[in-house]
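hey m, so remember when u said the tokens were messed up on ur end? i reran from scratch. heres the input so u can diff it against urs
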Amino acid sequence: MSTAAKIQERLRHHMPSIVALGLRGTALLAGFVITYFIGHKQGPAANGQYALVTQTAMFLSTAGLAGIDIAVVRHFPAALTRKMPIALSTFIKVSFLSIMLMVGIGLALWATGDVLWQPLVGHAVPKSALLVLSVLLIGRGGSRLFGAVLRSQHVFTLGQIVEVSIIPVAVALLLAAGMLHTPGQALWATAIASIAATVIGLLACLRYVGMRGETLSVPMKNLLHSSLPLWGVYMSINAVDWFTLTLAATYLNASGAGIYRVAVQAAGLMQVISISLYSIYPARISASFHAGDLAWTGRLTRSATRVSALCAAPIALVLLIFPERLLAIIGPEFIACAPVVRILVIGQLINTLIGPAGMTLAMSGNERLNLIISIGGTGLMFLAAPFATKYGGLEGLATSITTIMILRNVVSLFFVSRLLGLNVATGKVRPVKGGKPKVHTPPAGAAAE
């Protein structure tokens, strides 16, 4: 094979990852545009209010989905390996249950008044934002669910457009065009865009659903068996994002939350790489476990680690050296969070080099162990972060979160090596104690009809 052919083959192999990076990068850029127009023109407090509502909606949508979107990525790739569509009955049950769970959370918010509202957003956001929050959590949850279904069928580009691109790009364009002038208008635009993304995702998924012939039917019992442990993991992740923002608002008011949000977004230039790649690889890694090919799993985790490290290193260097210049673009009051950016970037770089240990653990069927690790890390965060914020400000908050995230990933790395004999960074597989890796395939109920 010629050099040109080898390059083309490598590009073809990595094209989904490259596209994912492009889409996530576009979404991140759109997020910066939103932050610029709100923060630059209306100040940190307005930016904090917008961030609190949108992050709370993301957290609640994760709660409402109950991990079903992640279980879809775990189970539905079997339709590809068996070359059959997803059963219409399974698709309807998954969609209906997910939407109803999110509607239930929205109704609970209305029924309980300040009982839930105050712990969620404190006094930084007026109660009048409850309606837009309710619409937003349903739209965000729906777009995540149908984006996950598309990714499970290896429709990575459209899946990510539905899940991560449509909403921020639409809002950024409206802000840039001067059509939105207040945080409330920006929030309603975000909510409407999320509903539009959900509808687009739903229509796109119908192509991979069948009524006749052999179809993949996954009983809800089996889906929930996987979804609940996976849900706990993602709840832990989203709880960190939401809780840290709420802590900043509690101890440092809405302006503090707005400043902290900008720091997280700046450091998010690093995180977008791992998120982009890990949105592609779970379905592939799940397929490799379905096929019983641990060597294939190793090649995938090695590829994810190397590509993410290669892309992350130059971005980390820029963010560590020049954060003040980036933050000054939004406004001089945001420069103060430059140390926070550096702390978050160092932590994310270390986690990138560790590799996708937690994801590999979950996709191998060890969801419960992965859940225990995540809950342990989140519990430690809930205990440590308030003290760190109270006595160390935003720098203390960032340090505590970074330390706990690194510790959690190191623990996941240890168990992947011990149970599977797999080094996620190098892709090497070694014999494990007992002679057989502890890989748990989905329950037998996932069958063809």
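this time it looks ok to me. Confidence is low (pLDDT under 50) at residues 442-449. if urs says something different then somethings off w ur setup not the seq
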